[in-house]
Write a structure and sequence with these properties.
Layout lengths: L2 H22 L14 H7 L8 E9 L2 E8 L14 E8 L3 E8 L18 H4 L2 E2 L5 E3 L8 E7 L2 E6 L4 E6 L5 E5 L6 E2 L13 E3 L2 E3 L8 E7 L4 E4 L23 E3 L17 E2 L2 E6 L3 E7 L5 E5 L19 E7 L4 E6 L4 H12 L12 E3 L7 H13 L6 E4 L20 H10 L3 E5 L3 E3 L5 H9 L13 E3 L2 E5 L5 H9 L13 E5 L26 H4 L3 H16 L8 E3 L2 E2 L7 E3 L7 H16 L5 E2 L1 E2 L8 H11 L5 E3 L14 H17 L1 H14 L4 E2 L1 H4 L12 E4 L3 E4 L8 E6 L5 E3 L5 E2 L3 E6 L7 E4 L2 E5 L15 E6 L6 E7 L13 E8 L2 E6 L16 E7 L7 E5 L3 E8 L11 E5 L9 E5 L1
The structure holds 1-deoxynojirimycin.
The site of 1-deoxynojirimycin (NOJ) has 10 residues, from loops.
Length: 927
């Protein structure tokens, strides 16, 4: 390129980036479509209840499924061009009461093209759990002219396919109470693909963009009702409350629906149904009356979901059997098929467990990834990295990972290094690694269109880019300027991408380097709504509109697979992604994107993280401190105090913000932040145990209170407080200079202040004094928490440190807890190389029992690590000493602090130096 041309280009890039950065300053509502500007959403929302005229016919069992045709009522004898072609419906049943309903066009009737069915989200094992339906029974529902088909789901539930009017629902056997239903309000609509007729106008325009829409309208919409429900939750990602507020009906006439469309929204507002970076079309209902149920629609096109407020249907004339405690919702998607899953619960954990049995169990992270991460856009150069790293040591603050943002690269060409700023990347990483620390670099999906850039050259030659509507490589603007995007839908391209992460291909990388995938919605600065045009083309001829919400998921998947390949299958990957979809939990962590340094964003981070956990994504967190803006020290401290309990705990900031490493705000604030980070490090054994629980059951690391106390109504809409596992309750402080906090402590048992050990009664709201030292946090009576109390530089250096067990006794002087330990790194745990213990305290005795299956020949994990302290809270008897069985060794008991560091006020019964190994069976009897 000639120099003046290059300058011109540079100017253009700067201009565009400038524009982009301007828009960074506030959310530009006009950049994004609302429902009225989105024709499929507008059409669907204007439909009236009862407008569906479909009936189900020809129901029969074939291949272990119930199949039927959906047709318009008098279709059999009317010849009409515009009439919809019969649709094919299948109902299938899987173990644990999971019902799957699919509706698609009939391939035998020759639709213009196959509609997109999202591959690679449902795990292959799921199909093995299918129950082979043998028969269908019939029953005439009161008032109906013809019988409905009934199929078995599980011992307690059955599914009903009502033929006329068409409706599908799950009901309890015996009493017939409904659990979830679809099309009870007759909203179902399925726009079929057609060939364009003369004069038909299919194009859609938004701002300066035109969507050619070659296949015309193809949206799907229907209503779903949840029975015995007080609230609905889920469908991330939105910055909004945990219990979803109504978006349609009396009093909310102007509300937008909850939008699921992955978008790069700068400075998103803190209370809005607007779509941001990720989409999981999974909703959970919960109520005192019936418990929990769930509904998942596997569809990756833009989706909009309304939660109907009470009275929305006052004039519909449709009366459903259960009018009370029913929540109606309305689902609309631009394309794809109906592929839906109904989960019956009845407990919240059952629903999440089953949802993850469909979409996959969350990945087990490496230990280091569960510790504290330090990030900033950008750590300037190697000297800066070195400086930040040594300051953490100087201030005695542990951290595990140092992150490099886009500016570490050579002109935003990922997999490269700016050779002036980072001339010795390997040495830099090795230096960190000697302290047990890791590095993360950013790798985004936009590939700089530069012929001298090897990634671009090869991708172009191989034809690996997404194509525009005309079949040319799609060219859009992002950080590097003109960029193309790899077509991650293709397994071949994903495999090629994965190979980019080998140590040979990623020059300057070392085995202690892990990856950050950002901008993978994908973000396209000059695209419609800052993303890829919907008529762009992917592998298999699918349009981008059909898979948009899963693009980032595939990118995340390919990157995680790259790290697995790099480590020859022996090293668990760590990849943080911004975009997400159902199933992302299998590939790593996500964070909630570009939040702001204000109290409202601190506040909304809790429902956001909780919602992600409820929908299968346990490993998430928000940027501590807020990405945009400069937090006041008090806000920063409060954010660390809360963020220490996020599953993913990372400080991060925009490059325009002032530096905010923990030691920059005076001694007292440094001390407070250090304390907050120390709390996380002390609790790492507990967190790691919870990550393993998530990995085997899908049950999230942090949970809404109602997940642990499902019958306590007072908890249903509480999203200021949350549970970490089942043993710790945390209440954030979301206001400046707070002196008091009202904290509701659920259940009939007491709660012990995590720091002071002070006991509080359960089942009450306590007005508590709040100090600057910490946010309120409590250990639930009846639990045992494993801790590590010695402070090191990083989690890796704590591996052989001894444990502290904190026993909080309930009113029966009993408690229990678990500990999971493995090598923290490899996949050997999948072959049984781990320690899993259950601790039970009762009758004055603490017993450690093995939970791991004992099978000869399995891989082994051994550890010499011992328990150095056992603290007992709520112990009502006098205790002088303890004896350890089976060795009969006596150990001392004394009153000691709950926390060695801050426990001045507390004096808890403490068993000193029991020295028992965590790998062994033992009993300690208090005398
Ligand atoms: C946007 C991300 O959300 C942010 O975290 C990152 O620092 C910038 N992109 C630059 O890479």
């Amino acid at each position: 390129m000639r120099p003046h041309m290059r300058n011109l280009n540079l100017l253009l890039i700067l201009l565009l980036l400038g524009l982009h950065l301007c828009s960074v300053l506030s959310w530009k509502r006009d950049e994004f479509r609302n429902c009225n500007q989105t024709p499929f959403c507008k059409r669907a929302r204007s439909r009236k209840p009862g407008s569906c005229s479909l009936v189900a016919r020809h129901a029969s069992i074939s291949d272990g499924e119930l199949t039927a045709k959906l047709l318009t009522k008098n279709q059999d004898n009317v010849e009409d061009h515009d009439q919809i072609q019969p649709l094919v419906l299948t109902l299938s049943v899987y173990q644990d009461g999971i019902l799957r309903l699919k509706i698609d066009e009939d391939p035998s009737l020759g639709p213009p093209k196959k509609r997109f069915e999202v591959p690679d989200v449902i795990v292959p094992e799921f199909s093995n759990t299918k129950l082979w339906l043998q028969r269908v029974s019939t029953e005439t529902i009161e008032g109906d002219a013809e019988p409905s088909s009934i199929v078995y789901i599980s011992d307690g539930y059955e599914a009903v396919l009502r033929h006329d009017p068409f409706e599908v629902y799950v009901r309890e056997k015996g009493n017939g109470n409904r659990v979830i239903s679809l099309n009870s309000h007759g909203f179902f609509d399925f726009e079929q693909l057609r060939t364009k007729r003369e004069g038909e106008e299919w194009e859609e325009r938004f701002r300066s963009h035109t969507d050619s829409r070659p296949y015309g309208p193809q949206s799907i919409s229907f209503d779903v009702s949840f029975y015995g429900a007080d609230f609905v939750y889920g469908i991330p990602e939105h910055a909004t409350s945990l219990a979803l507020k109504p978006t349609r009906g009396p009093g909310v006439e102007d509300s937008e629906p909850y939008r699921l469309f992955n978008l790069d929204v700068f400075e998103y507002i803190h209370d809005s149904p607007f779509g941001i970076y990720g989409s999981i079309p999974f909703m959970i209902s919960h109520g005192k009356q019936r418990g929990t149920s769930g509904f998942f629609w596997l569809n990756a096109a833009e989706m909009q979901i309304d939660v109907m407020g009470a009275g929305w249907d006052a004039e519909s004339g449709i009366a459903l059997p259960s009018e009370k405690n029913r929540i109606d919702t309305f689902w609309m998607s631009e394309a794809g098929i109906v592929d839906t899953f109904f989960f019956v619960g009845p407990g919240p954990k059952d629903v999440v467990r089953r949802y993850t049995s469909v979409t996959g169990m969350p990945a087990m992270p490496q230990l280091f990834a569960t510790a504290y991460h330090q990030c900033r856009w950008n750590y300037r150069d190697e000297e800066d990295v070195d400086h930040v790293d040594s300051k953490f040591d100087e201030h005695n603050i542990p951290y595990d990972v140092l992150w490099l943002d886009i500016d570490h690269t050579d002109g935003k060409r990922y997999f490269t290094w700016d050779s002036t700023l980072f001339p010795h990347p390997e040495e830099m990483q090795r230096k960190l690694a000697t302290k047990g620390r890791h590095m993360v670099t950013i790798v985004d999906p936009h590939i700089k269109r530069d012929d001298s850039y090897h990634v671009h050259k090869e991708a172009t030659q191989k034809g690996y880019y997404v194509k525009d509507a005309h079949g040319n490589d799609f060219d859009g603007w992002c950080w590097p300027g003109s960029s193309s995007y790899l077509d991650m839908l293709s397994p071949e391209i994903r495999s090629w991408w994965a190979d980019r992460f080998s140590l040979e291909n990623y020059v300057g990388s070392t085995p202690s380097l892990y990856i950050w995938n950002d901008m993978n919605e994908p973000s396209v600065f000059n695209g419609p709504e800052l993303t890829m045009p919907r008529d762009s083309l992917h592998f298999g001829g699918f349009e981008h509109r059909e898979l948009h919400n899963a693009y980032g998921y595939y990118f995340h998947m390919a990157t995680a697979e790259g790290l697995v390949k790099r480590g020859e299958g022996k090293d668990r990957p760590f990849v943080l992604s911004r975009a997400l979809f159902a199933g992302s939990q299998r590939y790593g962590a996500i964070w909630t994107g570009d939040n702001s340094a204000d109290w409202d964003h601190l506040r909304v981070s809790v429902p956001m993280v909780l919602t992600l956990g409820l929908t299968g994504m346990p490993f998430s967190g928000a940027d501590v401190g807020g990405f945009f803006g400069n937090p006041e020290p008090e806000l920063l401290v409060r954010w660390y105090q809360l963020g220490a309990y996020y599953p993913f705990f990372r400080g991060h900031a925009h490059h325009d913000t002032k530096r905010r490493e923990p030691w920059l705000f005076g001694e007292r604030n440094t001390e407070l932040i250090r304390d907050a980070i120390h709390v996380r490090y002390m609790l790492l054994p507990y967190f790691y145990t919870l990550f393993r629980e998530a990995n085997t059951s899908g049950v999230p690391v942090v949970r809404p209170l109602w997940m642990e106390f499902p019958s306590e109504e007072a908890t249903f809409s509480n999203d200021e407080a949350f549970m970490v596992g089942s043993s710790i309750l945390v209440q954030g402080i979301y206001t400046e200079r707070a002196k008091h906090a009202s904290v509701y402590l659920p259940g009939g048992q007491s709660w012990f202040d995590l720091r002071t050990g002070t006991a509080y009664k359960g089942g009450l709201t306590h007005k508590l004094g709040v100090s600057e030292d910490s946010v309120p946090a409590f250990q639930r009576a009846g639990t045992i928490i494993p801790r590590k109390d010695r402070f090191r530089r990083s989690s890796t250096q704590m591996v052989n440190d001894p444990y502290t067990l904190v026993i909080a006794l309930n009113s029966s002087q009993a408690a229990e807890g678990k500990l999971y330990v493995d090598d923290g790194k490899s996949f050997e745990f999948e072959r049984g190389a781990y320690i899993h213990r259950r601790f039970v305290f009762s009758d004055g005795k603490l017993t450690s029992m093995n939970l791991a299956p004992v099978s000869p020949g399995k891989s082994q994990f051994s550890s010499e690590t011992v328990v150095e302290r056992i603290v007992v809270l709520g112990h009502v008897h006098r205790a002088k000493s303890a004896v350890i069985e089976p060795t009969n060794r006596k150990v001392d008991i004394e009153l000691g602090p709950l926390w060695l560091q801050w426990g001045r006020e507390s004096a808890a019964v403490t068993i000193r130096k029991p020295g028992v190994r965590i790998a062994d069976n033992w009993t300690i009897k208090i005398l």
